[in-house]
Q: What sequence folds into this?
């Protein structure tokens, strides 16, 4: 919401559809799957993830398989910074 208030267009995805719907009501573009999420982003893509440390690596691996050279994944969650590098 802070990014949208700052003038950024945001595409959102979460495994909980109610969380996506709440952000869509506030002006975000919703996605129904990770593939749908990535397809709705203009290149070069910049993805900010906010996840528990235990699943961050798995999700980054999935995302990177859907993205292209020059795209960026930002780990904004609580992972150890050494893992995020």
A:
């Amino acid at each position: 919401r802070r990014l949208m208030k700052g003038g950024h267009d945001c595409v959102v995805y979460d495994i909980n559809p109610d969380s996506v719907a709440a952000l869509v009501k506030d002006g975000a573009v919703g996605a129904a799957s990770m593939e749908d999420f990535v397809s709705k982003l203009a290149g070069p893509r910049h993805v900010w993830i906010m996840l528990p440390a235990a699943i961050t690596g798995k999700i980054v691996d999935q995302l990177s398989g859907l993205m292209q050279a020059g795209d960026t994944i930002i780990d904004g969650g609580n992972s150890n910074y050494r893992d995020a590098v």
About this structure: Residues 53-66 form the longest helix (14 residues). The chain has a mean pLDDT of 91. DSSP finds five helices and four strands in the chain. Helices lie at 2-5, 17-25, 34-39, 53-66, 81-84.
